[in-house]
Design a protein that fits this description.
This protein is of the alpha+beta class. The chain has a single domain (5-142), classed as Alpha-D-Glucose-1,6-Bisphosphate, Chain A, domain 4. Helix content is 22%, strand content 41%. It has helices at 16-23, 29-32, 123-142, and strands at residues 5-12, 38-42, 55-62, 64-76, 80-85, 90-98, 101-109. It is globular and about 40 Å long.
Length: 143
């Protein structure tokens, strides 16, 4: 299966731990969502700190309201966190410390079979634009 990944990156002038703490708490996700689709966490997962294998659910709205459950599939404290939902799409954040802050890369991996349905649409390009907005919001929160 061919890799299909779009990404955005930004230098953020904050320690990796501060950035990671924001990402690892689902209660924060709406505050930095650049897509405007997140409506907040669902149920008891709202206040948990994520770890490898954690499940968390979010209220979403994109034309219609719906809920989505995600599973943390990659986790390296202060370096990388990724989650996927039932469709298999992966949202990933990678943090690399540099002089004066961190390089943060957000990516959307739609390499799964279902991802073929996104190829002829504007979804990948829209996701890239929204990731740039997300990284900007993260910077505003932690810097």
């Amino acid at each position: 299966m061919a890799k299909r990944i779009v990404s955005a990156e930004r230098i953020i002038k904050a320690p990796a731990s501060k950035i990671f703490d924001l990402l690892a708490d689902p209660a924060n996700h709406q505050s930095f969502d650049g897509s405007g689709t997140l409506r907040g966490p669902r149920g008891s997962t709202a206040s948990q700190r994520l770890a490898l294998g954690s499940k968390f659910s979010m209220n979403m709205e994109s034309g219609v309201r719906y809920g989505i459950t995600n599973v943390v599939c990659e986790f390296e404290e202060n370096r990388k966190i990724a989650w996927k939902h039932i469709g298999g799409f992966i949202w990933r954040y990678e943090i690399s410390e540099i002089d004066g802050g961190c390089k943060v890369v957000e990516s959307f991996d739609y390499s799964v079979l279902l991802g073929l349905s996104l190829v002829p649409t504007s979804t990948p390009k829209n996701n890239q634009v929204n990731m740039e907005k997300t990284l900007e919001r993260i910077a505003q929160i932690v810097e």
